[in-house]
Amino acid sequence: MCGLIIPPYFLRRDWAEENLKSLRISCDEFCGRKPYSVTPDVQDGIEIVRPHFEGVPPVILRDVSYFCHNLRCALDYLAVALTPGLDPRTVNFPLFWKGVWNEPLPQNPKTRGTPRQNWDRITDTMNPRAVTVIEGLQPDKARRNNGTDIDGLFALYELWNEDKHRNLPVLAADLADATLTWESTSGDTVRPHLPNPDQMVQDGAPWPCPANAVKVQLNGAVHVCVGVGDPTGFLRLVPYFERLLRFVEERVIDALYPMAVGIP
After folding, report:
1. Global pTM?
2. For 33-87, where are the alpha helices, taking DSSP H only?
């Protein structure tokens, strides 16, 4: 009796979805216990307070690592299924930049491994309709590594590479809708807001506070963030991964798997 064979890119996508579910739970538990403290300080003669965030627990780092790995593997398995005849060990999902297919080929025939050569090698055996879809997924060069406006798929590749070679830049550094509250010596409570409710409150950032302030509290919604790009931009981890998973499902896998070989 033969069972149904599920393509590996579907399995890896499903595993990434399970990693995301675990990540949501871990982040909710961590953020829900107000993982930061406020300490008084003086800067340039002005009374201030500084927030200090706790380190992100290992379970969050684990879930982020597994999510990035499984989603990247789903894309690579899909690329293998789209390139019959190539050694699967040499195939990755092609992600370079728009127009890489128009880049000049090297003059020296011994030169190997340029982005244009890798693009040609991977896409030459693909269904032309699949190549058109993948061309549309390539990021603009300006969005390849710009942390303030980084392309979603390229950010996934950056995080996967960071996890493979260094430490993932995951931190609790975003306090949304933040308010600093204190009582004056007269007993009045003051609640000044940040000028921009979406402004990120980073670890150690100075907040001016009157010299006679007592019972100082900093309140807001904590978000676990991840740093990507150069210059580094910080993305709220769970919402970003939710958008990324939907994008990969709808714009990549659903669009390309009908053209893959070996699907049941």
Report:
1. 0.83
2. 58-81
